[in-house]
Amino acid sequence: MTFEEYQEQARKTAIYPGKYSVIYPTLGLTGEAGEVAEKVKKTLRGNKKFDADFKKLIIPEIGDVLWYLANLCEDLDLSLDTVAKYNLNKLEDRKQRGVIDSSGDNR
């Protein structure tokens, strides 16, 4: 499945009022990212491994992050593919300039 195909399919299940476009998926994205972080935290706290059992728990949460991200992109008239390519190009540029491990947005 491509990002484009995923984004199209995800949109078919996006049921929220248009007046909340951008806002709704942004709030959902942060909530679901928090759930991913909680699963990782609890695994670390319990001295457990990131094994097959952990993956069974984390995959649905990461999937929810992806769904909200896809719909946020859709609401902003962006494609996931464009965002992914932009991000990789940005990181490659930082790597080439030797600032990938620095801090700040504008490096």
Give start-end ranges of low-pLDDT stretches: none
Rg, alpha carbons: 17 Å
> What's the CATH class label?
Mainly Alpha
Instruction: Assign the CATH architecture.
Output: Orthogonal Bundle
Named CATH topology? Helix Hairpins
What percent of residues are in strands? under 5%
Given helix and strand content, the structural type is mainly alpha
- Helical residues, percent: 55-70%
Distance between the termini: 33 Å
Write up what this structure looks like.
There is one protein chain. The protein is mostly helical. It has a single domain (3-78), classed as Helix Hairpins (Orthogonal Bundle). It has four helices and no strands. The model has no long low-confidence stretch (mean pLDDT 95).
Short description:
The chain is mainly α. It has a single domain, classed as Helix Hairpins. It has helices at residues 3-11, 23-45, 52-75, 80-96.
